[in-house]
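sorry to bug you again but im stuck and you know this stuff better than me. what follows is a protein written twice so to speak, once as letters and once as structure tokens for the fold. id like you to explain what the token line says about the fold, in plain words if possible. anything you notice is useful, everything is just below.
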Amino acid sequence: MTFRALIPLAEGIDDLQSVTLIDVLRRAKIEVVVASIESRRMLTCARGTRVTSDGMLVDVLAQHFDLIVLPGGMVGVQHLAAHQPLLQLVKDHAAAGRLFAGIAEAPAVALQTYGVLRQRRMTCLPTVSHYLSGCTFIDQPIVVDGNCITAQGSGATLELALTLVEQLCGKGKRAAVAGDLLV
């Protein structure tokens, strides 16, 4: 069985988080679709890294994904939070019980705006936890609450990616990917 993951990107998204999530999920043989919410495929991340998406989010809205994961980076996350088609996609995805994840600013800004964190245990970059309401902030690098997986920041990116591999593909695949990375 092939699992599919969607990673939506916007101008100003975090470089390390985006690239690491894409890389590790692909190492696990998960089909990763990197989709731009902007009007172009080439995007500039927060620290100047240029990333070319696989396509446009509007073109994949009707497709099935087993996981949607939002990287952090405040400017990019603010764009993601304001994007109505992505908001609806994540809400529907979460309501269907499928995995969704966010790291750094993404849980507190985008996932909070989407309304999918209510009554959940979660984490985010502690400096943006003041955006939260209706959920319980846990000061840990990674928090898994049912189909919601959140992480605090760039230092937790590799652990988040491996946790997502485990959630989709099992502990054996996580161990194999971690071993290949010498983690």
Observations:
- Residues 110 and 175 are 30 Å apart (CA to CA).
- The mean pLDDT is 97.
- The domain at 4-176 is CATH 3.40.50.880 (Rossmann fold).
- Helices lie at 15-27, 74-82, 84-95, 105-114, 157-169, 171-180.
